[in-house]
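Question: what's this shape?

___
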Amino acid sequence: MPAGKGRALAQVLRAEGLVERSGRGVWTLTQEGVTFSAATAAKPVTRATAERALAQLLDRVRRVDQDPYFLAKVTRLVLFGSMLKPEVQRLSDVDLAVELAPKEADYEHAQVLNRQRAEELASRGHQFRSFLEVEHCWHRETFQFLKGRSRVIALADYAAEKSFVLAVPHRVLIGTPEQIPAEKPATPVPWLRRRRPRRVPF
C-alpha cells in the first residue's frame, strides 16, 4: 500500500462496519469484519458433502488423539455457522474452531519434543519463517493435519476466535461448553480532595 493511504482505508473499512477504533491509532475487527475475513469465494456445496467432510474431520481428530506421532491433542471442537441451520441446503463451508493442547504434561519435556520435531521437519526440507513457527511447531503440524487440505472445512483456532465463536450460535462437539466471561464493572476511583497549601489565599 502506498504511504499515506492507510488512514483512508481505515475510514472506508469503518464506514462498512468492518473495523472500529479501539485506541489512538489502533483499530480492531468488528464481528462483521471477522465474518467477512473468513468468507470464501468457493462454490457452495450440498449439505451431504458438508456432512461427509465433517465426518472425515472427526476421523482425523480420533487419529490425532490416538497416534503418538502427534504432539497435540484435541481438547475442544466447536461447530458454528450455516451448518447449524437445517433450512440451508447449500453451504459455503463448514465452520469449526479447534482447541489443541500438548499431550506431554511436563512443560520442559514438551519443549524438548517440539524442538526435536522441528529439527526433524527441517531435515526433510520444511522451512520455518520465524522463531515463533518453530516454537509452535507442535500446534501448527496438528492443526494443518486436521484441516486436511479440505476446501469445505474452515478451521479456526479456538483460543484466538473464542469470543467470536461463543457470541454466535454454536454446538460443542468435543470438550466442555463455555460461556462468554462477564465483564467486571470498572472500580470507581475515589476522588481525593486536596488540601490548600498554607499561606495560599486561593
